Write a sequence for this structure.
């Protein structure tokens, strides 16, 4: 079992991703779509806002209007577009959000500390959550019938049964752990973890598990979330995480061959 | 097997619908969401436009921008909201669009005649389609695992594998026919087919199959599409279609008891 997280952004990559997916079975695909969420939010006059935790993680500030936008852009636009593109490449994809069949259930973060200038504010109306459970039965049923599940945020709030936002890399990590996946592949638009983010030749070929915390301190932005997701997947029993380049041909099998940053 | 088409508009109805759904099994839910599509289209500066066929049917003019809006509002917002609301009422719902697992595949209408004033124009860039096939295996698999599929537009274009819009009542009729459903229930915000649309007391209790064409000539707007869907379901072997009131308590079982307009 493999879990492949793809960026849902660049339509040109879907055919590449599809090629590998047809051969790498069984697999579950996870995607985000922050570019689409940002674009829709801006077009609707509700520009994206972000929170920065005291430990330096950046996350979307998802108020009541923003969670609707997340649902529309991710479960509506990106998931439908990705599933259609996979069908066009003979991958029998079925799109799901975490809400479907209680696939991913979590708990809302009711108090989030956010650094603003030299102050720390506490945010109470954010509709993002911490994952508590994954309904692997729904995934196994679809896989047994030959389908490839394609999963996106939102997830379901265990308490009020409303949608919650969640980081897609960490969603992929939880799904990989729950499925006892052999590997988690996080495809992105750089060759892997780079010592200098502006220089692809500084890609780190391998990060031993023991060094992950040190790397976490060093990197910023989206890559920091990917390393956090990688650490969660390893802690959840996934033996190997590969951060690979979605732009090269056949990116899934390249990553599984170890091209990119291998974390184990 | 029952197919229940609900209006995805008024959240207050979901709990009512859920009550009946828990008891009426197996069943498949279908929904539209034209109010949500119109609202999103307007908010995005792309106001809804409609086409009127020479025979008097009104349909959404779905150009390239509009099909994205349909996906976001229906598969994103309405489907996620309905599935979450059903979960809150102990209905194990799984949302799907026609794109998922090639659930509903169709053919794009490449030339649509539209009446504009005293002229008939031919529209070539509309991304709406005619349904050609339903993948009942995907529905049966989910039903066998105890889930209730909740299906919305868009569907998948058989030729270019892009999303297509389709009328939700007619989508429900095709799914009911494909599943050899015992009944198709079309829930709406009026008590049934009314001789005078402004007077609920003029509801028609029963329409024999032979009289359906005569009724089709008489009614306008959304109800005309429902009668067309009813005629397609009957032609597809569904023995009974009930157009019932979604606003009353336990609307699914009320409709199945014959409350509303029974077409058989």
């Amino acid at each position: 079992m493999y879990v492949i997280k793809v960026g849902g952004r660049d339509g040109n990559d879907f055919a590449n991703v599809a090629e590998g997916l047809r051969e790498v079975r069984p697999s579950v695909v996870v995607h985000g779509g922050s570019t689409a969420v940002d674009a829709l939010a801006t077009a609707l006059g509700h520009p994206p806002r972000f929170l920065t935790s005291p430990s330096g993680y950046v996350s979307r500030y998802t108020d009541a209007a923003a969670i609707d936008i997340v649902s529309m852009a991710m479960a509506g636009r990106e998931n439908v577009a990705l599933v259609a593109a996979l069908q066009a490449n003979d991958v029998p994809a079925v799109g799901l959000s975490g809400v479907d069949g209680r696939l991913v259930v979590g708990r809302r973060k009711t108090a989030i500390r956010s650094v603003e200038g030299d102050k720390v504010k506490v945010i109470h109306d954010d509709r993002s959550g911490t994952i508590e459970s994954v309904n692997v039965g729904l995934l196994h049923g679809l896989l047994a019938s030959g389908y490839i599940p394609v999963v996106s945020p939102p997830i379901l709030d265990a308490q009020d049964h409303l949608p919650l936002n969640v980081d897609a890399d960490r969603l992929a990590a939880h799904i990989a752990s729950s499925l006892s996946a052999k590997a988690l592949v996080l495809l992105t638009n750089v060759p892997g973890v780079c010592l200098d983010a502006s220089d692809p030749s500084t890609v780190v070929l391998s990060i031993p598990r023991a060094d992950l915390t040190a790397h976490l301190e060093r990197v910023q932005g989206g890559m920091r979330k990917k390393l956090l997701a990688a650490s969660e997947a390893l802690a959840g029993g996934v033996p190997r995480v590969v951060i690979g380049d979605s732009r090269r041909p056949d990116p899934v099998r390249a990553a599984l061959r170890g091209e990119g940053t291998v974390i184990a």
In short: Chain A touches chain B through 42 residues (CB under 8 Å). The helical segments of chain A are 12-23, 34-43, 64-88, 136-144, 168-178, 212-218, 221-235, 251-256. The radius of gyration of chain A is 17 Å. The mean pLDDT of chain A is 94.
